[in-house]
Amino acid sequence: MSNSRIEQIIEEIEDYIDSCKGPLFGGGDKIVVDRERMEELLRELRMKTPEEIKRYQKILANKDAILADAQQKAEAIIAQANIQNQELVNEHEIMQQAYEQANQVIEMATSQAQEILNNATRDANEIRLGAIQYTDDMLANMQTMLQDVVEKSNSHYSAMMDNFQQFYNTITSNRAELAPETEEPAPQETSEAEEEAGQ
């Protein structure tokens, strides 16, 4: 940073003093100066002082503003970082809760699915056993009905064959009475075909 004008004027005054000579009749620290030159330097120094002070004040004010702005930005960054950190913490907690809830839902769904499967298997077994029992009952009823039909058919057939035999015997007897001289062949016993039919 370059020196200010006040510093330059002070240096000029110092250089000027160093260049001045002492009085002819005297010694010590006394010197002879050019009044006009000295007043010119002092006048310029006096004029530059308020200007330099204002410039330094402005720099100081800017410095304070810069520091305040930097402080504000730093606080904003810290606040934003805290917010993001809190959001990350909240997000982690939310994810953790969601994960736990998902596990609970999965466990519940698995349990319900297993229960449904067990109930369906039990119902299917009960239906199968019921169908087998129903079919067996129906077959048993049909077996009983067929056995009854067979027994009744055999009984009716035997009675019918007896009737036929009696009717045959009656016809044979009647013919014998109508023509006693005609030798009629003796009535044969029931043929093998008839016996097989009766069985």
Extended strand count: 0
Shape: rod-shaped
Report the total helices. 3
Assembly state of the chains shown:
single chain
Please identify the structural class as seen in this structure.
mainly alpha
Specify Rg, calculated over alpha carbons.
71 Å
Keywords for this entry:
0% strand; 199 residues; 3 helices; mainly alpha
What does this entry look like structurally?
Residues 180-199 have a biased composition (Acidic residues). Residues 53-119 form a coiled coil. The chain is mostly helical and 199 residues long. Helices cover 83% and strands 0% of the residues.
Task: Compile the SSE list and pairings.
Elements: H1 5-19, H2 35-178, H3 192-198
Helix pairs in contact: 1-2
Keywords: Coiled coil
Biased composition (Acidic residues): 180-199
Region (Disordered): 175-199
In short:
The protein is an all-alpha fold and 199 residues long.
